[in-house]
Amino acid sequence: MATLPVTGIDISEFNGNVDIAALKGQIGFVIIRCGYGSDYTNQDDSQYETNVRKCEAAGIPYGVYLYSYAKNKSMAESEAAHTLRLLKGKRPLYGVWYDVEDSSLPGGETLIDNCVTYCRAIEKAGFYCGIYSSLYWMENRLNSPRLDPFDKWIAQWNDTLDYEGPFGIWQYTDNGLLNGRRFDMDRAYKDYPAIIEGMEGTDMTRDEVAQLARQEAQKVWEENENRYKTVDSVPKWAKDAVRRVYEDLELAGTKDSESGAVKIDASPTYVRALYVISRVLDRMEEKEGQLTELEEAEQEEPEEVLEERLEPPEETEE
After folding, report:
1. What is the b/e burial string over 74-103, where b = at least 16 CB atoms within 10 angstroms of the residue's CB?
2. Distance separating alpha carbons of residues 65 and 75, to the nearest angstrom
3. Burial of 71 (0-12, 13-18, 19+ CB in 10 A)
4. Is-above-0.70 flag for pTM?
5. Does the chain have fewer CB atoms within 10 Å around its N or its C terminus?
6. pLDDT value at position 90?
7. Position 253 pLDDT exceeds 90
8. In sequence order, what are the beta bridge partners of 65?
9. Which domains does the chain have, with CATH numbers?
10. How far apart are CA 201 and CA 285, in angstroms?
């Protein structure tokens, strides 16, 4: 059983000649671009075969991804065929990923149709398949429940990942430094070799594979629920707000006897709720301040003005 998360990199021909063997001990996996777009040999990644051989020689497990330009289901089918042609004789223990992020891609249900078409074709061929994209795309363009059966690889170059759905891999930076070279860096939160070797070793049905993936996703969700162990560990944008709410409302927390840090074991959703509560407290304080000013103004009014207010209006003859 791998110790999770496992750190890895993703590479393409744009990384040039990568000395993968020299990275052993620093990374646990590599995800390699096989190509882009429809099934044309001139759209194969020029370093793909070389990178696969280097991973196999170094004993580092790898996955594969294809960059999508599909405008419709027919093109998505061709992209799946492109990937499967390049997977012949390969054993990607970190899965096959559909890179969906290009600005030319369609929106709405057409985009979802393309993803389902590609992933189903890859799964039908016996491979583990998921979708890669940015946090924004996952939350706004790829948030259809039709994509729930497929694993997610999320790109958010940040200290923390703010995605609240199930996921397997987080691309946390595009600027990782290894042996003097820059790489996209990833963390895998599932033991993909164990999952995929389990699929290979049995005659598992698609539903059984989905059940196994859901179990792994549940583990990730449970870890996510307690992502922020202390107030000091929450994202910078929320830290002051969380601390203020805990102090103003005298929430319990648990103080560490040695460091003095307030333990909260909070999820991203809870942190966002505390941030909103902090804003509400701000508005309440503003309202209280306005009422105080009004009361003070009334107290300072001349006595004759107050008397005029208290006198009943004069009766007039009709």
Report:
1. ebbbbbbebbbebbeebebbbbbbbbbbee
2. 16
3. middle
4. no
5. C
6. 96
7. no
8. 33, 97
9. 6-225 (3.20.20.80), 229-299 (no CATH)
10. 63
